[in-house]
Design brief:
The complex is a heterodimer.
Chain A lengths: L8 H29 L12 H36 L1
Chain B lengths: L1 H21 L6 H6 L6 H12 L8 H9 L5 H25 L4 H9 L1 H34 L3 H38 L2 H9 L2 H12 L20 H19 L1 H8 L4 H10 L1 H11 L1 H13 L9 H9 L4 H37 L5 H28 L1 H27 L5 H21 L5 H22 L5 H4 L12 H12 L20 H19 L1
Helix pairs in contact in B: 1-8, 1-17, 3-8, 3-12, 3-13, 3-17, 4-15, 5-11, 5-13, 5-14, 5-24, 6-7, 7-8, 7-17, 7-18, 7-19, 8-17, 8-18, 9-10, 9-15, 11-19, 11-21, 12-17, 13-24, 17-18, 18-19, 19-20, 19-21, 20-21
The chains are: A mainly alpha, B mainly alpha.
């Protein structure tokens, strides 16, 4: 019995990488913007620790966004390479 | 805060949309159950780790146990890393690839026969459905307590999101989402340990407060406590945990193994598993170390924690500002979703490949089994949802889960080790050994009243090993062609094509389903041996400091 053949695995990985990148960028930037917007709001912690916690928040959001950008760029590059080889 | 709701809502919407988007590429059972064998090693690493970390085996339950018992809980993170992932990646995964299988029970049939496949499949299937129900229950309760939203609608939304992307996108979508979840958990929730340790004056400050001022036992900071520790006696952690439970979990848990079978090459599969030992080790800094420090924060702020499972939620709720709290909740939801999607996809694979295709409807076109896979996924979602309310009320379910795990892992490790390292092990020997080992686990737990899970696993492993050896020696030697390519001493690479054909004749594995096994020469920074050595040394260093 003949089996249906799926898409080229290289293209699948490239599209997956790009999608992961886009998801991480959207999430990282949204959290970043919302954190800035709510910065004037109440933080349930001591005032002395608030700047440090905010800094940690910025670093983790930044990390997620940078990883997202890296994945998006890597995914697009892989996609172009896979299309060329086809 | 509204901003936290926006972040969680956005996160769930992204997961849902991406799952639907990826369902377009799924056309065959190999695509659906094995992600078209396309995943690179870093996908595997993220997916294996994320599948293993959930509400149950991660932030809430493990974090809660760390809050109650201390650093001993880190032995799961600091032993599973080297002994589970690294050893499975180095020694066991290759045999699964050589056998050309979709599932672990399929491997057992290839080596031993169909009887063991049926018993093992049904055991894991029950365990998986209970796990999904327990994860949904814990997730619903967590979001209810932290965001004050109703329980059942929350459970339905979680089920709809994870069910949609797993049902439509299969393993490929699940792996992809798990990688996103891996990043959110690792990068998004890691800051907590730095914040807490800074607040309590570092690790030394933490020890000083708890040991000197609070007079807590030094065992609270020991990963390997003495033999009288009620939660986890050290020697049994080494025997039962390192050598049976963790390797059995990594090599026998279908959702962990299935992610590796979805790799684009055997090397990617092995490397993904070995490197997953690194995030596993770091997992202790996500939810164990923060929860060891949590009692001081709670005492300083006058916060009362009624149940250990709720401690992590209370901690982040009382510590983090809006925005960051939303990201943390998204991180925790990620843990739950990744665990559910892993188990859900594996359950449907077992139903279709080990039961439906093998025993009920044979020889249909691939598309038939692909559609049946989606139907099975839906059926398992419904069964798990029905079980949520029972899990909430009945301690019997959690007892059943623990018992099943003790029955499954100890005897499984015995017959797996013998399958690979001793050609003489045969079908009757393995079946008798497995059944006697399982019966012993039940007897030891129920009749003799043993409650230390590691002890049950260790002794059921020993009993199954001894019985399998004796029964195999008393019965006929297996035919050489049946074990060829599946044992340690087989010259697999020299005869790969011939073995593939033979396997097709022996157990019905379609030749088109056999993975292509290439010899890969990696760059130095992806060398399997370097990674394995580095991770093992890191574990030894951690044990030296915290042992």
């Amino acid at each position: 019995m003949e089996e249906k053949k799926g898409a080229d695995p290289k293209i699948i990985v490239a599209v997956q990488m790009t999608s992961i990148g886009v998801i991480l960028i959207i999430l990282g930037l949204t959290v970043f913007v919302l954190s800035i917007l709510t910065m004037a709001g109440t933080a349930p912690t001591d005032n002395a620790w608030t700047p440090y916690i905010r800094m940690c928040s910025v670093i983790s959001n930044g990390g997620i966004t940078i990883l997202g950008i890296a994945f998006a760029i890597g995914g697009v590059a892989r996609f172009k390479r896979a299309k060329k080889q086809e | 805060m509204p901003s936290d709701f926006i972040i969680i809502g956005l996160y769930l919407a992204l997961m849902f949309t991406a799952g639907i988007f990826f369902s377009r590429n799924i056309k065959s059972t190999a695509d659906y159950f094995l992600a078209a064998r396309s995943a690179p090693w870093f996908w595997i690493m993220g997916a294996v780790w994320a599948t293993n970390i959930g509400f149950l085996h991660g932030y809430l339950a493990h974090g809660g146990a760390a809050y109650e018992w201390g650093l001993i809980q880190a032995n799961f993170e600091w032993f599973q890393g080297p002994f589970g992932y690294v050893l499975t990646g180095l020694f066991f995964i290759a045999f699964y690839w050589r056998a050309g299988i979709f599932t672990v029970p399929h491997f057992l049939e290839t080596r031993y026969g169909s009887g063991i496949r049926v018993i093992y499949s049904i055991g894991w299937l029950i365990f998986f459905i209970i796990t999904i129900a327990a994860e949904l229950y814990l997730g619903g309760m967590f979001l209810k307590n932290i965001l004050h939203i109703p329980f059942w609608p929350t459970v339905f939304v979680l089920t709809a999101v994870v069910g949609t992307y797993t049902l439509l996108g299969g393993l490929g979508a699940a792996i992809m989402m798990e990688f996103v979840q891996f990043v959110i958990m690792m990068v998004g929730t890691m800051p907590l340990v730095f914040i807490l340790l800074n607040m309590v004056g570092g690790f030394e400050g933490l020890k000083d407060v708890l040991l000197t001022q609070w007079n807590i036992s030094p065992q609270y900071f020991s990963v390997l406590p003495d033999n009288h520790h009620p939660y986890g006696p050290g020697p049994w952690i080494i025997l039962g945990q390192c050598f049976v439970v963790t390797i059995g979990w990594c090599a026998g848990h279908q959702s962990m193994v299935q992610r590796n079978l979805g790799a684009r090459s055997l090397y990617d599969s092995k490397l993904g598993y070995v490197v997953a030992g690194l995030p596993k080790t770091l997992g202790a800094f996500l939810y164990i170390v923060p929860m060891v420090a949590a009692p001081i924060i709670f005492a300083q702020r006058g916060i009362f924690v009624e149940k250990a499972d709720a401690a992590y939620g209370k901690l982040i709720l009382n510590l983090l500002p809006a925005g960051m709290l939303g990201l943390f909740i998204a991180g925790l939801v990620s843990a739950g979703l990744s665990s559910i999607s892993g188990v859900l996809n594996s359950s449907s694979t077992i139903v279709i490949k080990d039961i439906y295709e093998r025993f009920i409807v044979k020889g249909k076109a691939d598309h038939h089994y692909f559609v049946a896979g989606r139907v099975a996924t839906f059926g398992i979602i419904v069964a798990s949802l029905l079980l949520v309310s029972i899990v909430a009320k009945s301690p019997l379910i959690m007892w059943l889960e623990q018992t099943l795990l003790a029955i499954l892992l100890g005897p499984f490790m015995a017959i797996l080790i013998l399958a690979i390292f001793w050609r003489r092990t045969n079908t009757p020997g393995s079946l008798i050994g497995y059944l006697v080992g399982s019966a012993f686990a039940i007897y030891y737990q129920q009749v003799l009243g043993q409650r230390v899970f590691f002890k049950i696993s260790w002794w059921s492993f020993v009993v199954a090993l001894a019985v399998t050896v004796v029964a195999s020696l008393l019965t006929k030697r297996p035919k050489p062609e049946k074990v060829e390519g599946l044992t340690w001493e087989s010259d697999f690479h020299a005869r790969v094509g011939e073995i593939t054909e033979q396997r097709a004749v022996n157990n019905g594995t379609k030749v088109t389903e056999m993975p292509e096994i290439k010899v890969t020469i990696p760059p130095w920074y992806l060398n399997l041996k370097y990674w394995a050595t580095g991770i093992l040394l890191a574990q030894l260093a951690l044990l030296f400091f915290f042992g």
